[in-house]
TrEMBL record:
Residues 14-132 form the MTTase N-terminal domain. [4Fe-4S] cluster 2 binds at C169, C173, C176. This is tRNA-2-methylthio-N(6)-dimethylallyladenosine synthase. It is found in: Cytoplasm. Pfam families: Radical_SAM, UPF0004. CDD domains: Radical_SAM. Belongs to the methylthiotransferase family. MiaB subfamily. The gene is miaB. PANTHER family: CDK5 REGULATORY SUBUNIT-ASSOCIATED PROTEIN 1, MITOCHONDRIAL TRNA METHYLTHIOTRANSFERASE CDK5RAP1.
Length: 505
């Protein structure tokens, strides 16, 4: 067997399936896991394989209270399938693996590999070791071994890409276990980030999303408080890069220089997702969020002054321990004032291992549900009102893949406006590919999407559309060389300048 990244050709081609739960960080980590497995000679199982693969990888999330129940339920469903399929392997990684470690194999002894958030690059080696030694391999690193963007990556999109600029988090929010599982913030070198983006653009990517646990805290690890705004401006100088987004920023670090960079850099999109979590100063203090309602709304006001058309979204937790009706009304007030384009609202659930899980004043489920419904109704009305303001506007929409579930029956296509609003539009007579840009007039607004019912005003074919076409054509060709079992030894990292990359929490 070869000692490099790839094995010698064998008669049987091994397949893999990666199942992802949780945040954008996990989504992009799964792109890396797929890249590692393909680099080791595996091929992706067909869509809908549902466990019918030689290797099934679970990339887990530990944020939800029932995350472990969901994992073990899925593992249980695979147990009989593994019994019937000799040589099948199951791996569990991600935040829950980092947290539970030995517990996973004790509860599901048919699992072959458990790996953590800091050593995803070891997956092919651990699978090979488990196969040779015929016993489970558990390897959890306590700190980052290498920045993940140096790993091979199988990007899900030909026209848009995640790019990690940092990993980890220095905050201590009482509802969040992520810092304990992802570690302290570690920033990438700016030059490496820009080199990766340039490489992606050369491959046809026209939109990147910069990712970090607290993306705008970038620079704290390298001692430059304005590093994030400088990075945004540097992205503006990359020829061929049409759209830049980022997620998720923290209000504590959202400074005026970032707002100025957003407003003054043409390819930074007029979109901001900034988690508020609560509008109550009392609850924000209990959450250990380092801002208060006035500070948060002040940021929103500054952003709107600099970018009047910006679409602002947020995250809100309802029913945090100790939340009174007055606290909840403060959240409702903040939502009315902020007028978010949309909000991801969550009913508080205990995160095992977090301070909030042991706090007094846990709110009864019925109360949390009732407040959640009231908040959702308010935000739905605001979202609809804000979307109605888009009617009559002419927008450039980047055609997306898989965004419109009804496109086939409605004879429409779908894509994203510069502010990231979802737009369904009439299919033009000429061919349009994901990554191409269509100019449309908005004629109707619903709470969660816009419609452009007339014929598009124009279609711009792009390098991204070309890249999508090339990928689609390549995928349609039958496989050539049959590759097999992964080679022994850690995969050689790609150069930073050519490594695609990354995700969000």
């Amino acid at each position: 067997m070869s000692s490099g990244n790839r094995s010698e050709a064998v008669d049987v081609q091994k397949s893999y399936e990666v199942r992802t739960y949780g945040c954008q960080m996990n989504v992009h980590d799964s792109e890396r896991l797929s890249g590692l497995l393909e680099d080791a000679g595996y091929v992706r199982a067909p869509a809908g394989a549902d466990g019918d693969a030689d290797v099934v990888v679970f990339n887990t999330c530990a944020v939800r209270e029932n995350a472990d129940n969901k994992l073990y339920g899925n593992l249980g469903r695979l147990a009989p399938m593994k019994t019937k399929r000799p040589g099948m392997q199951i791996a569990v990684g991600g935040c829950l693996a980092q947290k539970d470690r030995d517990t996973i194999v004790k509860r599901a002894p048919w699992v072959d590999v458990v790996f953590g958030t800091h050593n995803i690059g070891k997956l092919p080696v651990l699978l090979e070791r488990a196969r040779v030694q015929e016993e489970a391999q558990i390897e959890i690193a306590e700190s980052l071994e290498a920045f993940p963007s140096t790993l091979p990556t199988r990007r899900e999109s030909a026209y848009a890409a995640w790019v990690s600029i940092s990993v980890g988090c220095n905050n201590t929010c009482t509802f969040c276990i992520v810092p304990a599982l992802r570690g302290k913030e570690k920033d990438r070198r700016t030059g490496d980030i820009l080199a990766e983006i340039e490489a992606l653009v050369s491959e046809g990517v026209s939109e990147v999303t910069l990712l970090g646990q607290n993306v705008n805290a970038y620079g704290s690890d390298i001692g430059d408080r304005e590093a994030f705004s400088k990075l945004l401006r540097a992205c503006g100088a990359i020829e061929g890069l049409e759209r830049v987004r980022f997620t998720s920023p923290h209000p504590r670090d959202f400074t005026d220089d970032v707002i100025a960079a957003m407003a003054e850099t043409p390819n930074v999109m007029p979109q901001l997702h900034m988690p508020m979590q609560s509008g109550s100063d009392t609850i924000l203090k209990a959450m250990r969020r380092s801002y208060r309602q006035e500070r948060f709304l002040g940021i929103i006001e500054k952003v709107r002054a600099a970018m009047p058309d910006a679409a602002i979204s947020t995250d809100i937790i309802v029913g945090f321990p100790g939340e009174t009706e007055e606290d909840f009304e403060q959240t409702m007030h903040a939502v009315r004032e902020a007028r978010f384009a949309n909000a991801f609202t969550f009913q508080y659930s205990k995160r095992p291992g977090t301070p909030a899980a042991d706090m007094e004043g846990q709110i009864p489920k019925a109360v949390v549900q009732e407040r959640y419904m009231r908040l959702s109704a308010l935000q739905e009305a605001i979202s609809w009102e804000e979307n109605k303001k888009q009617v009559g506007r002419t927008l450039e929409v980047m055609v997306a893949e898989g965004e419109g579930r009804k496109d086939g029956s409605t004879h429409r296509l779908s894509g994203r406006a510069p502010d990231n609003r979802l737009v369904h539009f009439t299919k033009p007579a000429q061919e349009v590919r994901p990554g191409d840009v269509v100019t449309v007039d908005i004629t109707y607004a619903a709470p969660h999407h816009l419609l452009a019912e007339g014929a598009p005003l124009g279609v711009r074919r792009t390098r991204s559309g070309d890249a999508w076409g090339a990928r689609t054509a390549a995928a349609a060709k039958p496989a050539g060389v049959m590759l097999g079992l992964p080679g022994i030894g850690a995969p050689a990292p790609l150069p930073a300048a050519s490594a695609p990359g990354c995700g969000r929490d």
